[in-house]
């Protein structure tokens, strides 16, 4: 666990995450604009809406520009013969080891945004936990899924 | 051999096929030779539950609907007494009819290595469970059961979720025991010759004195108090204002001495209740080690029999609550995979109270492979970690202190005491944290409020993770967590915070199957 895992996830992940974040930002800004309109109509002090707008701008910077980039930079994975090694996290970096023989099943999943960039999410489940590798290229994801499920054979050890 | 693995795998992959509902099974199952001396043959005929099951069903339905109906009842009662009576009697009549019908329709039998349940009045439901898939058979008898010499049977497979797979609400004790024997002997495992084993198996029974100590140190006063306060805030609105006010005036007129006396007496009564509760729950606690399982029997009013197969035990732990710490008493529990999730006891208690130094011997005797490393073996946390514990425990109270000093300076002693307590706890948390690796076994000790030491095996750990935040990374510290399978198929996680990076890597390398060049650090 000294070296970080080798493989990056697909670079398009940043774009996909930015779109997702933008959708939330649009909703947030609709609320902020509604707040401004209401305070203009009813002559509420505009200062609160102003603060809201500033926070909204900061949110756009943080969630749309900063976080996806950092998240991409941190997200790494590596598949070994006998285990899967994952690293993620922005402030708290977490590295996880999942032995192949503990893997119960592997899913790939694709929403509309990921689909646009031909990406897919792979989730790996053990009997106790589920781990996700987000936004891999579609063919990488299905390859990975197949590879894990062939490697994850039933072991002699009981659970 | 990999039967257990299959169970869990099934659990995830083929949950729906595990219990074959509405499936006509051809007779291609291994049929055991009929053995006339074996009482299980009589179980092959469909059997009904004991008629008392109707009563239990009635109670259950009433319990479930009382809140919803209660509102309706109150309204009708306000309108007129006549309608109220009619409403209630129709409801009861329907209930009784449906209870009788569902009792008539409910049958169980053991046939062709399967437990077959058929039930349902309008929608007939058949549930066939292969005996090999059954993990756990619990017999429970509450007061009413015991009155009629009955028992409740709960049968679990590996599938997740709360509640038992099959619940027979009332069968006679003899039938229950026979059913259990049939289901267990049906497994390909060795037969349980119960009467022979009883004599030679190691058993341990709780003494009355110990039970009393367990009660006095259970710390349930706090829980009861919180429950009562919560309950009170709920019913406060229902109490008429007038009574509430006059009581309040009456209490305040008594003077401070009386009030304090009142509180002390109240707490004492709660404490006694707590003792009684513990004694009722764990009275006659007996644990018996059988060939392939642990058998636990407990309870004064409600007797409960648990079987814990050894190969389902994921980890064994020792818990020392903060109240019991000065008296050096501990509690032994197990983390068991699968089965139904029991809210009141997610981890089955293997023994409710033991002296600290008896624990090791107990574990050696009953769960021989899960010996827990003693204090001296543990690698304790580096002192660099202490400040994180102190900080994370006390930060809330320190932040709370500022507004209190500002607004209510007279009360600033409250947060100060809390800060001191939380710092002490943080200090203890750091002092007690530690780990130990020996062969394929790992022991982790950590404290949140209570000190918990668990030991488990390499092959039981589902995944392991190491996390680092910025400060930890700079200081070469880390946090390590292991994940195990808990009851109800839910994961349970044990985290050891703020150990050195080196130790975290040691644990990770121990766990990792890959022995690569980055090994050379050790």
Automatic annotation (TrEMBL), chain A:
It comes from Pseudogracilibacillus auburnensis. Residues 72-148 form the YdbS-like PH domain. The chain crosses the membrane at residues 21-41, 47-67. This is YdbS-like PH domain-containing protein. Keywords: Membrane, Transmembrane, Transmembrane helix. InterPro entries: YdbS-like_PH.
From TrEMBL, chain B:
The chain crosses the membrane at residues 55-75, 81-104, 211-235, 247-273, 388-406, 412-428. Residues 25-34 have a biased composition (Basic and acidic residues). Residues 24-45 are annotated as: Disordered. Residues 103-182, 285-364, 434-511 form the YdbS-like PH domain. Keywords: Membrane, Transmembrane, Transmembrane helix. The keyword Transport does not apply. InterPro entries: UCP026631 (IPR014529), YdbS-like_PH (IPR005182). This is Putative membrane protein.
């Amino acid at each position: 666990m000294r070296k970080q895992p080798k493989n990056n996830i697909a670079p398009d992940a940043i774009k996909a995450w930015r779109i997702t974040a933008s959708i939330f930002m649009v909703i947030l800004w609709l609320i902020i604009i509604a707040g401004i309109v209401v305070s203009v109509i009813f002559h509420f002090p505009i200062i609160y809406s102003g603060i809201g707008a500033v926070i909204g701008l900061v949110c756009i910077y943080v969630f749309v520009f900063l976080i996806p980039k950092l998240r991409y930079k941190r997200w790494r994975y590596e598949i070994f013969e006998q285990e899967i090694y994952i690293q993620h996290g922005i402030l708290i970096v977490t590295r996880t080891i999942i032995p192949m023989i503990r893997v119960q099943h592997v899913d790939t999943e694709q929403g509309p945004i990921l689909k646009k960039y031909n990406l897919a999410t792979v989730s790996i489940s053990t009997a106790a936990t589920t781990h996700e590798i987000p936004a891999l290229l579609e063919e990488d994801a299905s390859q990975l899924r197949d590879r894990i499920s062939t490697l994850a054979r039933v072991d002699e050890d009981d659970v | 051999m990999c039967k257990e693995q299959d169970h869990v795998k099934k659990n995830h992959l083929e949950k729906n096929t595990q219990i074959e509902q509405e499936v006509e099974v051809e007779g291609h199952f291994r049929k055991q030779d009929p053995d006339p001396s074996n009482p299980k043959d009589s179980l092959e005929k469909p059997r009904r539950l004991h008629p008392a099951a109707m009563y239990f069903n009635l109670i259950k339905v009433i319990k479930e609907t009382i809140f919803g109906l209660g509102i309706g009842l109150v309204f009708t009662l306000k309108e007129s007494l006549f309608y109220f009576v009619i409403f209630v009697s129709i409801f009861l009549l329907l209930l009784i009819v449906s209870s009788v019908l569902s009792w008539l329709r409910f049958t169980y039998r053991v046939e062709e290595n399967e437990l077959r349940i058929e039930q349902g009045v309008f929608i007939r439901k058949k549930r066939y469970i292969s005996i090999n898939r059954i993990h756990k058979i619990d017999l429970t008898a509450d007061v009413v059961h015991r009155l009629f010499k009955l028992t409740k049977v709960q049968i679990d497979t590996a599938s997740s979720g709360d509640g038992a797979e099959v619940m027979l609400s009332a069968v006679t004790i003899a039938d229950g025991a026979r059913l259990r024997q049939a289901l267990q002997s049906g497994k390909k495992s060795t037969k349980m010759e119960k009467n022979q084993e009883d004599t030679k198996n190691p058993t341990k029974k709780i003494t009355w004195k110990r039970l009393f100590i367990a009660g006095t140190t259970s710390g349930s006063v706090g829980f009861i108090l919180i429950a009562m306060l919560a309950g009170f805030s709920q019913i406060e609105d229902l109490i008429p204002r007038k009574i509430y006010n006059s009581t309040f005036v009456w209490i305040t007129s008594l003077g401070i001495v009386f009030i304090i006396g009142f509180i002390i007496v109240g707490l004492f009564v709660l404490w006694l209740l707590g003792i009684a509760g513990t004694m009722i729950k764990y009275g006659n606690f007996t644990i018996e080690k059988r060939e392939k399982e642990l058998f636990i029997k407990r309870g004064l009013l409600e007797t409960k029999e648990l079987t814990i197969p050894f190969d389902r035990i994921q980890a064994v732990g020792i818990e020392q609550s903060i109240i019991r710490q000065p008296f050096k008493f501990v509690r032994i529990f197990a983390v068991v995979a699968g089965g139904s999730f029991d809210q009141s006891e997610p981890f089955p208690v293997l023994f409710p109270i033991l002296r600290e130094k008896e624990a090791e011997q107990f574990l050696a005797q009953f769960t021989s492979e899960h010996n827990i490393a003693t204090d001296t073996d543990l690698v304790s946390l580096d002192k660099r970690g202490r400040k994180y514990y102190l900080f994370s425990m006390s930060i809330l109270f320190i932040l709370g202190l500022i507004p209190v000093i500002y607004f209510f300076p007279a009360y600033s002693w409250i947060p100060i005491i809390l800060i001191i307590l939380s710092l002490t706890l943080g200090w203890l948390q750091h002092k007690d944290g530690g780990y130990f690796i020996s062969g394929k076994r790992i022991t982790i000790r950590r404290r949140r409020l209570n000190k918990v030491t668990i030991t488990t095996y390499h092959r039981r750990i589902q995944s392991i993770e190491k996390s680092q935040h910025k400060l930890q990374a700079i200081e070469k510290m880390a946090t390590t967590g292991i994940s195990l399978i808990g009851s109800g198929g839910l994961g349970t996680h044990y985290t050891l915070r703020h150990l050195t990076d080196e130790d975290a890597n040691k644990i990770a390398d121990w766990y990792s199957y890959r022995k690569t060049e980055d090994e050379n650090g050790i």
